[in-house]
TrEMBL record:
Domain ABC transporter intervals: 3-237
Pfam families (UniProt xref): ABC_tran, CysA_C_terminal, TOBE_3
Superkingdom to which the source organism belongs: Bacteria
Keyword NADP: no
Keywords: ATP-binding, Cell membrane, Membrane, Nucleotide-binding, Sulfate transport, Translocase, Transport
Record's signal peptide: none
InterPro entries noted in UniProt: AAA+_ATPase (IPR003593), ABC_SmlMolc_Importer (IPR050093), ABC_transporter-like_ATP-bd (IPR003439), ABC_transporter-like_CS (IPR017871), CysA_C (IPR041193), Mo/tungstate-bd_C_term_dom (IPR008995), P-loop_NTPase (IPR027417), Sulph_transpt1 (IPR005666)
Protein known as: Sulfate/thiosulfate import ATP-binding protein CysA
Organism (species): Rhodoferax lithotrophicus
Amino acid sequence: MSIEIRHISKDFGNFHALRDVSLDIESGELVALLGPSGCGKTTLLRIIAGLETADQGHILFNGQDTTDKHVRERNVGFVFQHYALFRHMSVFDNVAFGLRMKPKATRPSETVIKQKVHDLLGLVQLDWLADRYPSQLSGGQRQRIALARALAVEPQVLLLDEPFGALDAKVRKELRRWLRRLHDDLHVTSIFVTHDQEEALEVADRVVLMNTGKVEQIGSPQEVWDHPASPFVYGFLGDVNLFHGRAHEGEMLIGEDQQGLRLATPEHSEVQDSKAFAYVRPHDLDVQRYVPGNFEQRGIVAKLTRAMVIGPIARLELLPLDASAAGSGDIIEAQIPAQHYRELEFKEGDTLVLTPRRARVFVA
Ligand SMILES: Nc1ncnc2c1ncn2[C@@H]1O[C@H](COP(=O)(O)OP(=O)(O)OP(=O)(O)O)[C@@H](O)[C@H]1O
């Protein structure tokens, strides 16, 4: 089932929860809605489900407008963060629930239901728990049962709202791999909401980045990571350092003195002396020892305030000596291979020079 989201807007009182959101989801795709808390992800999911109505715009399923379609007629399966399994029902009865609630004319026989529930429990690899009650399951097991229950009625669309949000990091990681494999087997058009960028990038075919009720960027995980469309996306997807400076005719200057850094920004060759921001990932910073008076050595001069070696990576925290380069008081973070860090023999308190290998410049 394909889903077209056309110019959806939604206000709650004076608050604009969604502003003119448009998005096409292909049949069989797994799409992540990613963004900070309060950006409108859940509201959009609820509108797609029919649990909430939009003030403006339309949702089309397979080209058909769903505006007048009740949630029950949309053939949508849900899984929420706070798994709403029925506590007084066994796992088997929870999964069978949707099938038993079908109108008599379309309700399968108990024999068929039994087979189907066992197949679904097999699919989520928990057949052995059929007789247990929700309170006797781990959080991860409950979410897998919730998914089996959502799939029982053969939805054409699966909507997942922070399905693994309440679980610990290790279980989340296992479950997201498992969700991806399950999706590859079933190909149900699926949308899941998350504020965890790693989860979105790892699981989804495409990621929709949202901020303050608007779509900032839509693309494959690789596209949004490699080519963030806006400063917001750059900052939201992973750690990033922000440097301030000025752009002029295809070059950005960071820092004032002769050893200031010049970054080539051919994409801004038309710009005349404008305020600019450079975004640089910690692993894209080269770090060398500072040599006073060496004018060949251009870069951001900073003091090493803290160094942590975590496995193969050394994480360095640095304070720029020229506060105008970064936001005042802002720590710069660099990541270099631990081996390299040991060879350089840096110590906390050393003055170092940072040069970005890769930067993305936005002009104000
Ligand atoms: N029924 C409601 N009445 C008033 N305001 C609401 C209602 N539902 C949501 N909002 C507001 O709309 C905004 C978007 O909410 P939404 O739940 O869609 O955000 P979200 O991106 O899913 O956030 P989170 O990740 O925290 O769940 C929030 O500021 C929220 O307070």
